[in-house]
Amino acid sequence: MKGFVIDTKEWLSETARIFRHEMSLVFSDVGVMLFFFFLPIAYPIVYSLIYNTEVTRDMPVAVVDNSRTAMSREFVRHADATEAMKICGYAADLQEAKRWMAEKKCFGILEIPADYTRKLGRAEQPQVQFYSEMSLLLRYRTFSSSIADLQIATGAQLRQMTLDDLGMPSTGETSTIGSVGFALGDTQQGFASFIIPGIVVLILQQSMILGIVLLGGTRAEQRRRLKGGGLPVTGDSMSPSAQVFGRTLCYTIVYIPLSIYILHYVLHFFHYPHEGQVTDYILFILPMLLATAMLGQTLNMMATERESAFIIVVFTSVAFLFLSGLTWPRYAMTPVFTLLGDIVPATWGIEGFVRINSDGATLGLEPRPWYWLWGLTLVYTATAYLVTRWQTRRG
Predict the structure, then answer these.
(1) All domains of the chain in start order, with CATH
(2) What are phi and psi of 64, to 5 degrees?
(3) Which of 41, 230, 366, 376 could be bridged to 291 by S-S, CB 3.0 to 4.6 A?
(4) What does the pLDDT average to over 118-138?
(5) Band of the pLDDT at 117, cuts 50, 70, 90?
């Protein structure tokens, strides 16, 4: 029992020395400070400023009116009154409108057929064509929504005109069935409110991995210099487990204030969906920080020099973004890519945080992502220990 107590005290002492040394490295290495502090502080603000418009409105649309009647002009006025469209002018024909689109003078073309009014008078269905420029899907989505609303409103108006012509009393209602839409989570129906809460979680992971691998590359360069009479790497003579836990404690303590800043204050300042309780998503994000710290130390096996950090993070950032389900739903992925996404801490961090932050869920309602994060923490703790032990023996 006495030997166990002595070993425990020695292990805690080594862990504390590793923690202090790693903390001094973080605050003395300009590159690490850039990735640990500047990147997570600046990137969310830059992304938010870029996407702060949220939705696309009043996009220029050219009109090709082959009918040239009072009813077609009224339809164009209603189109101009929608949120998405702003009529920029009448084109003589479709070819001229296409030239305007090629010159970026407009992003949509509304073509009204010559028999528009005649078919309406016969109670037939005219075909109004709309062409959308597809270089930005946000435009297409907004156009589609406004065209659907315009179609419903026009149909309701025509039905009311028919009832008035028949002498039936007007009820004042423009549609047979009333509907009210409530957007859950993304109340603004904007791109920033949809993607930024997930992106900030990925920024936390990638910036931490970038800094950890940068420190690992520094240690690898120091070990190579040992052959030329250089000083030994601090910590190589200590227990691998003390190295892993001491460094993890350092990274986690550094990132807890950054997590509060990113997940609470940035989202609050830019008025993004922010329904969850701060205690819920901070407790939720804690295992993600631990799993990320362990994953970064595992990736140190590929860090042969400081520049390795850029290669690893550039290679993984886009892959992790797609695997997270932000750009493509995870349920539509093949089992292989779903499995790859499962082993990335940010995947479960994004899923749980978005539900807590945007949908107002509690930590108790989101146990699955939380349990997955703790499971990944245990797995990557084992891999980080094996990698550190291998590097220590080589050193």
Answers:
(1) 2-52+188-394 (no CATH), 59-165 (3.40.1710.10)
(2) -115, 95
(3) 376
(4) 82
(5) confident
